[in-house]
Each structure stands twice: as structure tokens, then as C-alpha cells.
Amino acid sequence: MNQAIVAVDVMGGDHSPEVVVEGIRKAVQLDKDLRVIAVGLPGAIASLEGVDRVQCVGASEVIAMDEHPANAIRSKKDSSIVVGCKLVKSGEAGGFFSAGSTGAAMAAATLGIGRIKGVTRPVLAAVLPGVPKPVILGDIGANADCKPEYLVQFAVMMQAYAVAALGIADPTVRLLNIGEEDSKGSVFAQEVFGLLKESVPHFDGNVEGKEILTSGTDVIVTDGFTGNVALKTLEGTSKVVLQQVKGALTVNLFSRLCALPLVGQVKKLKAEMDPDQFGGAPLLGVKGVVVIGHGSSNATAIANGIRATATAIRNELTKKISSALPQA
Description:
Elements: E1 4-9, H1 18-30, E2 34-40, H2 42-45, E3 54-58, H3 69-75, H4 80-89, E4 95-98, H5 102-113, E5 123-128, E6 135-138, H6 148-166, E7 173-176, H7 187-199, E8 203-207, E9 219-221, H8 224-249, H9 253-259, H10 263-273, E10 281-284, E11 289-292, H11 299-314, H12 317-324
Parallel strand pairs: 1-2, 1-4, 2-3, 4-11, 6-9, 7-8, 7-9
Antiparallel strand pairs: 5-6, 5-10, 10-11
């Protein structure tokens, strides 16, 4: 294992800075070749001073979740998000992790770090706990309005991510659609289908929403609006299902006694469905590794997000994406 340097936005997330600080401590404990540059208000990062393999860099401003992303990064040039991306741009860090404003992190990465040559739009991807194996879904919100050719690039970049970060050889791709038949969907979907079939290796046709987690494919591509709705629907449904299972198993003394042999399996199911195990969604297509965590991330999710960023750095994700794209 080789060294990786990750800049971390200490001010990002609903429970920052305490949870982020704890996540940083966990990450460096679990990964002995990891170095973290903790970026945040001086008071927020003070407790990390002197921690082995953690460097503190002060930032005087914070971008709030409700601020307009583009305006915020332009007006708050010394915010933790902007400073973190500058560290990647300068080469002081190999990647950046934030659980703060998704829009601000994407804007700072795109404008501050820059896009890989040939990339029209970066794509935000998520690793989902599918059955029988994880599946990468994207775009999940970076690009609400897309042209058909965007999705071809999304698919290629997510395939490169599947190879670099998850170790999947020859990852398959399917298009999220309203039916499996080739002729299904809107004019937009049909045009995308034709382009994917023509130019993306290992394209395996359409997949319906009901099979996002069970299709067995490695990558599912869609536009950012549809992908975000699908992701939020899956997250909400999984929470309701787990709550219903818990309620059914604890409704009375008899059901609680009968449920005892199932406790281990229910806990295992919850762990498998927990998005915290993946830590965040990579923004693919920028000149550096950028991973964006969920705003409600706990310390475990923060640590996993930092480690996922480190893994992508070590596996030269940016270089692999650049090599996978058609050369102009």
C-alpha cells in the first residue's frame, strides 16, 4: 500500500466539525499509509494539531448548505471547500473529501481543479449495495439536464471507476429505462441507447427501476434528474422497510421472543443496505479525485469516504478515466 494524501473539509456536514474530526482520526488509524490535510476554521481543527499524519490548514470561511453554489465559491474564496480543492489543484493533495454542500463541492472542483481534457460534464456516481454485488449508479444529481452524448461519457467514466476503485474487470453497463426492450423509453432514452450500443464496450441494454439493485450489472447510467430521484427513492424505501421489519418483530412479547433467532440476520441486512459503508459519491471527470459524502454522515461514513478517496488516488483513477475517454 502506497501513501495517499487527502484534503478533508472539516466544516462539511450536518454534524461538523466534531463528527468529521472523529472520522479523520478513525481513517488514519485504519490506514497507516494515509495522510490527511484537515481544512477548516482554526478552532474546529485545533484538536487535530499534533495527530500523527494529519496536517491542519486554516480556512476563514464556511459555505452553508443553503447558499447558491457558484456564488458561494466565488464570494468565499477562503472557505474550507475552495481551499481543499486548491490543495488538489496545486498537487499538495491527491484528492478531496467533503460532506458539505454537494453543489458547492461540485462547482469548486469543476472550476477550481478543472475538468479532464475531453470531459464535457463531470458525473456524480454512487456505489449502491446491490445483490449479488454492488452497482454504480450515475448521474445522481450533477447534471439535471443532459444531452444524449453526455451519458456516453458518464458510462465510460463510471466503467473506469469500477475498474480503479472496485477492481471490476470489464464492467458491464445498462441504461435506466422504463422497459428492457431496445425500443422502450422517450426519444431521449432511445437516442442514448443507440449511442451506448454503438460506442460503449460491454453495454448490456436497458434496466428497469425495479432492478437497480438486483440486475447484476456493474454500472447503471442515467441523467442527473432521474438518477437523483431513483437514489432518494431507494434510500427512503430501505428506511421504511427496515422500520417495518423492526416493528413487526417487536410488536409484542411473543413476536420479540420469536424474533431472537433473526436478530443477527436483520443486523446483517441493515449493514449491507447502509450507504455509510461506501462513504460518498465520486465526482468523475475532474483533474483530481473528489468524493462527496452525505450531509448526515456519521464518523464511520466520514472515515470510509476518506479511505475511498485514498483508494481512488492510489489506483490512479483520474489517469484511468483520461485514458478511457476517446482522445481528441
